[in-house]
Amino acid sequence: MKNLLVFVIFIILGFNLSAQSNGESIQDHYCNKARNEQKYHDAMLNALSIEDLSFDLKYYRLEWKINPAVYAIDGKACCYFQAKKNGLDILNFNLSTQLKVSEIVYHGSTISFTQTGTYDLTVQLPSALPIETLDSLTIIYAGVPPSGGFGSFIQSMHNNTPIIWTLSEPFGAQDWWPCKNGLTDKVDSLDVIVTTPDKYRVASNGLLVSETQIDSFKIFHWKHQYAIAPYLIAIAVTNYEQYVDIVPLSNGTQLPMLNYVYPEDLQAAKQGTQNLIKVLQFYDSLFVTYPFYKEKYGHAQFGWGGGMEHQTMSFVINYSWGLLAHELAHQWFGDMVTCGSWEDIWLNEGFATFLEGLTRQRFQQGTSWWDWRINKINYITSVPNGSVKVDDTTSVGRIFNGRLSYDKGSYLLHMLRWKLGDDAFFRGVRSYLHETQFNFAHTHQLQANLEQASGQNLDEYFKDWFTGHGYPSYQINWNQNNSNQLYVQLNQTTSDASVSFFEMPVPVLFSGEGRDTLVRFDHLFSGESFSVPLDFKITSVKFDPDLWLLSANNTVNQVTSVHDQLPEELIHFQVSPNPSNENFVVTLELKKPEKVILSLINATGNIVTQQQLEFNSDRKKIILQRSNLTAGNYFVRLQSTDWQYTKQLILN
Questions:
Q1: Distance, CA of 586 to chain centre
Q2: Distance CA 180, CA 168 (A)
Q3: Which of 93, 177, 213, 534 lies 20 to 30 A from 620 at CA?
Q4: Structural domains of the chain, ranges and CATH numbers in brackets
């Protein structure tokens, strides 16, 4: 993006008031987000022409009069800003030129401005400001807002009653209020003041601090004191019924869950939000305390076929489990921490989809959790290519691609949980949230925190799964000899040439004689062979029984001879005793003098010990100390510049 203009909005109170489909499927959420993408695309290329980093948004006071029966907006926006360079004398904002600015007031006087192009509002200050100066101005404007993207500013009906609601993600804030329409500057706090006929209620961000009756009108004053991205500021106005659920949080707060509901849907809503209490408590305990605990969480029903995670008050089409769990998760991932570029939208949508899945694992009965995973895998792999990283940030349809930004993004996280283990994964995510709280974030920041928590280098993982396209297919060949020694060869092909090999730990379940064992293979290259000691005869083999891996078209074959022979460079490679409850010995012999690296790797893929060996023609014996190693599966890997071979070691 280039320069994004900042808009300071004051909205005239003298406005003449007379003058997701089934939300259980998040598919509806993102399908509807992309619905109007084509008509919006050209306008976006214009709208993203400016980015003004010369000032920082501190506060907005937004005043509107809204009548849901009249499609129009008229009001004023007072903006407090801080100069970020010396000599600041021009402010650039984003506001549709279909909305006409009548005046801009600065220190009690009107000042010069121009509206050009499609979304450019340029304000000329009478004198230049020194750096770090805090100042303010008020923009007064009116008109009929355009409606692009997912709606921006929409008038519709429910049960023969009008409603006006907003949905600004990703670029729509500029359609109805003057803003900095990008991902560089959060507003530190705001007041939203809306006057409407008294038969209606107004939903918005933060706390409702007052509700004042004046003749046949009501003034609703909402105050929000947390940093907020412009696209998350919202209003909805109609004949809402309201009720409150109380949610006890881990920090002792009794959080109000405020619900604004169409009267005709009140009973269904009450059941849905009651179920959500335990989900909010689950998220609250899993990561960090609900970010906006000093204010509220809530829902406002609206007419769009899905949901939108407006900060502290999600707008939803209905009150089904999947939709509510998804939008609630955004309060942490999307609202408190917001993606710093639309190419990183998976940090919002992938996390929200992943967490909705976790609620099924924790709370749902039957096949809900299994169905969630298998449906994601089937949808993602229905097309052989596509990256989680957005390659066209001007396209709403590409940004909110359900298969990639939502589902593949969620499976990227699901696989990280498997690769790193629950402890390291959730510690890393918590660290990421603490580091980036109430700010913007990028994928590399999540990666760094997960690496710090796990001790693993994730460059290859994110290169394959975030930047790369497609998915792997596995071919598993296995054989067991008369001594029950198991030999396995893992082969892999990829669906897209952008990734030659997906380096992932591979789970395989071996069963027989009333017993089973799950072996986690540290798969580093296609054709890699493994040797595993077992004490039972195998009768069945199941690849990835718990659906940890994003893959498709996998095969398992029992063969008469699995390449249990060693690489031709290796005459002898033995680990004994195996299984072991003490120190163990690695015996090696190579055909020719060579330098090799001997590594002991634990079940999560971390190298426990490593040493370089120089070989002549003699057989070597290397004693590895049990020391403080815990019981479990390990791998002993021998690696040169041209080949490698791995054996599994079981420590009792």
A1: 45
A2: 12
A3: 534
A4: 10-240 (2.60.40.1730), 342-467 (1.10.390.10), 472-558 (2.60.40.1910), 570-651 (2.60.40.10)
Structure tokens at 325: 């769990």
Q: Enumerate residues 6+ apart whose C-beta is below 8 A from 319.
A: 23, 261, 265, 268, 269, 271, 272, 273, 299
In this structure, is the dihedral angle defined by the CA atoms of residues 491, 496, 498 and 503, taken in order, positive or negative? Answer: negative
Res 603: pLDDT: 67
Contact 7, 95 (CB under 8 A): yes
Give first-to-last CA distance, the chain, whole Å: 56
Encoded tokens for 180: 């900095």
Strand partners, 555: 475
Low-confidence spans in the chain with pLDDT less than 70: 1-51, 148-150, 561-568, 603-605, 617
Residue of 289, 239, 232 lying closest to 263 (CA atoms): 239
Q: In this predicted structure, what is the pLDDT of residue 6?
A: 29
What's the length of the chain?
A: 652
Per-position DSSP letters for 360-427, written without gaps between them:
HHHH--TTHHHHHHHHHHHHHTTSS---SS-S-TT-HHHHT-IIIIIIIHHHHHHHHHHHH-HHHHHH
Give rounded-to-5 percent helix, strand, coil for the chain: 25, 40, 40
Q: Which residues of 224-258 are buried (b: 16+ CB within 10 A; e: fewer)?
A: bebbbbbbbbbbbbbbbbeeebebeeeeeeebebb
Q: What is the pLDDT of residue 596?
A: 87
Please provide residue 93's backbone torsions phi and psi, each rounded to the nearest 5 degrees: -120, 165
Consecutive H or E run containing 277: helix 266-286
Please check whether residue 273 is in contact with residue 245, taking contact to mean a CB–CB distance below 8 angstroms.
yes
Q: Which pLDDT score is estimated for 222?
A: 98
For 429, the 3-state DSSP assignment is: helix
Residue 508 near residue 521 (C-beta atoms within 8 A): yes
Predicted confidence (pLDDT) per residue in 484-499, tens digit: 889 999 999 999 999 9
Interatomic CA distance for residues 439 and 307, integer angstroms: 23
* Cis amide linkage into residue 170, ω under 30° from 0: yes
Sequence-distant (≥ 6) Cβ neighbours of residue 345 within 8 angstroms: 339, 390, 399, 400, 405
Cis (ω within 30 of 0) for the bond into 533? no
Other residues' Cβ atoms within 10 Å of the Cβ of residue 21: 16
Q: What is the mean pLDDT of the chain?
A: 89
Check if the beta carbon of residue 636 is closer than 8 Å to that of residue 600. Answer: yes
Report yes or no: 203 and 186 within 8 Å, Cβ to Cβ.
no
| Burial (0-12, 13-18, 19+ Cβ within 10 Å), 332 | buried
Pairing label, strands 297-301, 314-316: parallel
**What is the model's pLDDT at position 10?**
29
SS3 342: helix
Residue range 596-648, pLDDT digits in tens: 888 888 866 678 889 888 877 677 778 888 878 888 778 888 888 777 777 77
Residue 403 corresponds to which tokens in the numbers above? 């298969």
DSSP string, 73-132: EEEEEEEEEEESSTTEEEEEEE--TTEEEEEEEETTEE--EEEETTTEEEEEEEEEE-TT
Kindly state the percentage of the chain with pLDDT values over 70.
Answer: 90
The answer to whether 100 and 185 have CB atoms below 8 angstroms apart is no
